[in-house]
Amino acid sequence: PQIGADWAIDFELTDDEQGYYLLVRDGSILPGGAAEALTVNVPPVKGSDFARDLALIDSRRSNAPSLGIQNTQQSQFIQFGDQRDL
């Protein structure tokens, strides 16, 4: 899938890992390979060949800090976990 004009992402959905989210540094989140509205039900992903401006977030940690990502449609804040190195 193409994001913008000059960079793309490549990842696949997995059945064995949960709670992973693609977070673009401008604050948008990319569930399942498509840029969509923020939701707490984002499919888990396993990444490869990520662009520099993407971060893989693990939200399963009980002490996961909030990154202040606001869901404007539902006026809720989504909790994200620690960034992991790919």
3D structure, described in words:
The structure is a single chain. The chain is mostly beta strands and about 90 residues long. It has one domain. The chain is about 0% helix and about 40% strand. It has strands at about 1-5, 5-10, 10-15, 20-25, 45-50, 55-60, 65-70, 75-80, 85. The strands form 4 sheets. Strands 4-6-9 form a 3-stranded antiparallel sheet, with no helix packed on it. Strands 1-2 form a two-stranded antiparallel sheet. It is globular, with a radius of gyration of 12 Å. It starts with a strand and ends with a strand. Mean pLDDT is about 40; it is low at about 1-20 and about 30-85.
Structural class: mainly beta
Between the first and last Cα atoms, what is the distance in angstroms?
19 Å
Q: Give Rg in angstroms.
A: 12 Å
Beta-strand residue fraction:
35-45%
**What's the number of structural domains?**
1
Q: Topology as H/E string?
A: EEEEEEEEE
Strand count, sense and closure of the main sheet? Answer: 3 strands, antiparallel
Number of helices: 0
For the largest sheet, list the strands in their spatial order. 4-6-9
pLDDT < 50 runs, ≥5 residues: 1-21, 29-86
Overall mean pLDDT score?
A: 41
Binned, the helix content reads: under 10%
Shape: globular
Total strand segments: 9
